[in-house]
Amino acid sequence: MLSDSEILGHRFPGGRYRIAHWENFLLTDCTTVAQLPDGLVHPIAMFHVPILGCGVSISELFDICGAQGPGSVGLDGYDWEYFRPLTIETDYLASGSIVRWEHRTDHHGHAYDSMQFAIELHLESEPTQMVARATNTWRFRREPSSAAFERFVESDHPQAVAIPEFVVPSVDAQRMKTMAAILRDPYRVHWDREATTAMGLGGRVINQGPLNVSYIVNALHQFAGAGCVRRLTVNFHRPVFDGDRVVAGGEVLLDRESSGSRQVRVWLKRNEPIADEVLVSGRAVIA
Question: Is 116 helix (H, G, I), strand (E, B) or coil?
Answer without folding.
Answer: strand
